[in-house]
Amino acid sequence: MKEKVMNGLQRFSKAMFIPVLILPIAGILIAIGNIFTNQKLLETVPFLNNPITTGFGTILSGSLVSILTNLGVIFCVGLAIGLAKKKKAEAGFTALLAFLVFINAMNKFMELNKTLISAKDLQGTGQTMVLGVQILDMGVFLGIILGIIVGIVHNRFIDTEFKSAFQIYGGSRFVFIVIIPVTVLLAILLTYIWPIIQTGISSMGGFIKQTGNFGIFLYGSLERLLIPTGLHHLIYTPFLYTSLGGTEQIAGHIYEGARNIYYAEMADPAIHLLSKSVIWDARGISKMFGLIGACLAMYHTAKPENKVRVKAILIPAVVTSFLAGVTEPIEFSFMFLAPLLFVVHAGLAGLSMVVLNILNVRAIGPNGFLDFLLYNVPLGVGKTHWPMYILVGIAFFFIYYIVFRILITLLNLKTVGREDDSKDVKLYSKKDFKEKEKSKAIVKDASNTRNGEVPAALIVSALGGEDNIESVTNCYTRLRTVLRDPSVVKEDVLKNETGASGLIIKGQNVQVVYGLQVTAVRKAVDAELGISDMDAELE
C-alpha cells in the first residue's frame, strides 16, 4: 500500500513538471518586457525611449500576464499529458474538452440553483470568470483535479475497442464519452463541496501566516529535505500557484500564489514594492551562496593528495548551482556519505529564507544568479531590495562554510576526498576520474552530435536491460525510470561510466541524476529503447 502511494505521488510530481516548468519562461519574458519600459533605464539610455521599443515591452509583458489568469486550463492539460501512459496528445485534447464541459456545467447548475452573483462585482464572493464563464473560484486546483481525473480515465479506457459499427467509438473517443458524465457530475458535486474545501485552505493559509517565520523555516527546510524523494515540488507548488502563497488584487484582477502575484506586479508600473508573498520563491539563496560555502569547506577538509581531483569535481558543480540553481550534483556528493550534512543544509536553507523575511527583502530568487539578475535588476532596488538579498547570501556563504568545516573535521565525516583508503571509490582514481569527465563531456555535447555518442546502451544495461524498464521520463536534472526489478541496477556503472552524479531508488522508481544535460541523455535512451517522440513520456 505504501509503495502504491509513493508511486502515485512520484508520477503526480513528475506530471507537474509540464505546467510548472513552462511558467518561469513567462516570468523571464515579462522581466525582459520590463527592461524596455523601465523608466530609469529609459532616462539612462534615451534612444530606447521610443514608441517601438516601449510598445514592444508593453505588449510582451502585458500579453504574458494573461497566462496567469488561465492557470486552471494550463494545469489541466499539462497534468493530463504528464499522467497519460500513452497517446499523450489525445489525453491533452480530452483534458481541454473536459475543462470546457466542466466550467459550463457548473455555470448552468449554479444558474438553475440561482446561486450566481452579479458578474459586475465578484471580488470576495468566491466566484470568478474563467474563460468568460462565471463559476466558483477554484483557481489552479480546478486544473489539478480535472487533470488527474482525465489522466486516470484516459489510462483506464484508452485501449478500449469495439467491433462493427461501433468501432469508431473506441480509443480516445470512448475516453471522451466516459469523461463527459464524470465531469458533469463532478461539477455538480464541487458546487456544494468546494466552499467547504476553500474554507479549509483559507484556514491553512491563516495558520501559516500566524506561524510567521517558523512556517517559512519549515517550508524552506522541507523543500530541501524532500529532494532525495523527488517530491519537493509538492511542497512549493501550492505556495507558488494557490491561495496558500497569498492573494492580491492587481490592476483590478485577483491573483493567488506567490509566483502569480509577483509576475503580475512585475508588469504593473503602479506597483512600487513587491508583495511579501515573494518570500515563498526565495529558495535560490542556498543554491547561489550557501552550497558554494559547503563546497569550499569540503575542499579545504579533503585529504591533501585528493584536493586536485576534488577541485575538478566541485568547481563545475558550483558554477552550475550558482548560475542555474541546479543543486543535485553538490547535494548528492555529500548526502549519501554524510547524511547529517544534508539535514544541516536543509535547516540552513530554511533559516536563510527567515532572515530575508525579517529584513523585508522582496527580491525574486527561485533558482540561480542568471534568473536573479533578469528578474530583479530591471525592477530596481526600491521594488525588490535586491542588494540586501546578495548581502544575506554572502553571510550564509560564510555560515555554511564554518558550520560544514567544523562538522566535517569534528565528526570526521567522509565527504568528497575524505573517504577511507580501503573504500573503492572509483571517482577518485586517476583513470576512472578521467573516464567520468570524458562521459560528462560526451553527454554535454550530445545535443549537438549523434545520439550514439551518449552511452545510452550502457545506461540501459546498467538499469537492468530493456525488459526491466517500464517507463522513462526526465525533469530538470534527473532521468526518472520505473523498473520491474530495481535490485539489478548497477550504481557503480551509472556513476563512474555514464557521468551520473547520484542515484535514488524508491520502490520501483529509480532516478539517475545527470544535471542539465539530462535532456540529451533522455533522448539517447529513448532512441536506444525504440521510443518515438509520440510515445515518449513528456516532462
Automatic annotation (TrEMBL):
GO terms for biological process: phosphoenolpyruvate-dependent sugar phosphotransferase system. The active site is at C475. Residues 3-420 form the PTS EIIC type-1 domain. Keywords: Cell membrane, Kinase, Membrane, Phosphotransferase system, Sugar transport, Transferase, Transmembrane, Transmembrane helix, Transport. Residues 453-535 form the PTS EIIB type-1 domain. It is a multi-pass membrane protein. It is found in: Cell membrane. This is Protein-N(Pi)-phosphohistidine--sugar phosphotransferase. It comes from Companilactobacillus kimchii. The gene is malX.
